[in-house]
Design goal:
Length: 79
């Protein structure tokens, strides 16, 4: 795996807590951040995503049942 070097600035409290979590998992801070980035980028939809879709019934859109794919796509992209 080829890695790209990057630099970030963390708040002291964030740094402390992330270092603690990395140590507890037995990984480096860099590895923990890679795992967190991967989890974020390839995550399953959150409960809020589904709530927005369910809320389409209250949207007032007259064509919600006919044009549901478009409405669902718009609701998720607003996330």
């Amino acid at each position: 795996m080829s890695l790209k070097r990057t630099q970030i600035y963390l708040e002291p409290e964030q740094h402390r807590l992330l270092k603690r979590e990395a140590a507890a998992k037995g990984v480096s801070l860099a590895e923990l951040l890679r795992q967190l980035a991967k989890d974020h980028l390839y995550k399953e939809p959150h409960r809020e995503d589904f709530a927005r879709i369910v809320a389409l019934g209250k949207s007032g859109a007259a064509d919600a049942s006919e044009d549901h794919d478009r409405h669902i796509g718009e609701a998720v992209s607003r996330g």
